[in-house]
Amino acid sequence: MPKIDINAAPVKTGSIYPEPYNGQMAGRRSQRLGEHAGLTQFGVNIVHLEAGAPASLRHWHLREDEFAMVLTGELVLVEDAGETVMRAGDCAAWQAGVPDAHRFINRSQAPASFLIVGSKAEEEEATYGDVDMKIHISGGKARFTYHDGSDWSGPRDLAASGIAPKGDSK
Amino acid sequence: MPKIDINAAPVKTGSIYPEPYNGQMAGRRSQRLGEHAGLTQFGVNIVHLEAGAPASLRHWHLREDEFAMVLTGELVLVEDAGETVMRAGDCAAWQAGVPDAHRFINRSQAPASFLIVGSKAEEEEATYGDVDMKIHISGGKARFTYHDGSDWSGPRDLAASGIAPKGDSK
């Protein structure tokens, strides 16, 4: 029966980010629908954000396309060029390899949610736009580095690393 | 600006099916969001069905995972095992290679719509569950055959071909 029992899907809270970034992801919860349904070629999650919660650090993917649709409430999409308010039915998409870091944040006073779909590349790399960090995923394992590829060993902001930050880093 | 202007997305009506099947797809319209946003790794469409309209012939994909979420109205999901009524927020998913032919049909008195996501394999094959036809896609071109792989040259029902139909063929 391919209709998905959404409430039976695994729920993930928090993030795989090292501290202090993991602690900034409070109020975020993700229902892993695609995994629950046995899909392997792309991921499908419903992400729920409490008032004030961000979905992620602002990031862009090297090899994976992404698509999102807001399902409930009001979210703000933050990119290099600024902010866009999005409501139920609004969609956004990001082509792999385009270096425009993005994230959703719930700046409203009520919960909000969105559907997110992303390809599953064997090897993936995502670059964070507001902090000096990258994630490298290979064989299901994640490794964090600075933008220059050296091992991450603690928070370093972009200015201190000599990298000009872009857009809104709120 | 990755927010998608949904009304600017290309709209497709009808199907690529040969007649008489193409004529059975009246009342179907698809907004090609993923293509509009430049995504290449998976397709994302919003399909609108008038009262009575089906989204497709009942089919299953050999190599491509699929995911759907009902957005508005009420749809019926038809599979080998029977029918499931689905409403806004209900989701379904189909793993590549599982031979359970499925389709949505709008049996209600009002329009309905759903979001559909599917991987884009280089070479793809889909088998129709209620009629003796398969589609083979290669290099962006479609070719229709009977289930036995011989060239399709006109409608042939499954019983006449000695294939036992499964499930509900309404």
From TrEMBL, chains A, B:
<dbReference type="InterPro" id="IPR051610">
    <property type="entry name" value="GPI/OXD"/>
</dbReference>
<dbReference type="InterPro" id="IPR014710">
    <property type="entry name" value="RmlC-like_jellyroll"/>
</dbReference>
<protein>
    <submittedName>
        <fullName>Transcriptional regulator</fullName>
    </submittedName>
</protein>
<dbReference type="GO" id="GO:0046872">
    <property type="term" value="F:metal ion binding"/>
</dbReference>
<dbReference type="InterPro" id="IPR011051">
    <property type="entry name" value="RmlC_Cupin_sf"/>
</dbReference>
<dbReference type="InterPro" id="IPR013096">
    <property type="entry name" value="Cupin_2"/>
</dbReference>
<feature type="region of interest" description="Disordered">
    <location>
        <begin position="151"/>
        <end position="170"/>
    </location>
</feature>
<dbReference type="Pfam" id="PF07883">
    <property type="entry name" value="Cupin_2"/>
</dbReference>
<keyword id="KW-0479">Metal-binding</keyword>
<feature type="domain" description="Cupin type-2">
    <location>
        <begin position="46"/>
        <end position="117"/>
    </location>
</feature>
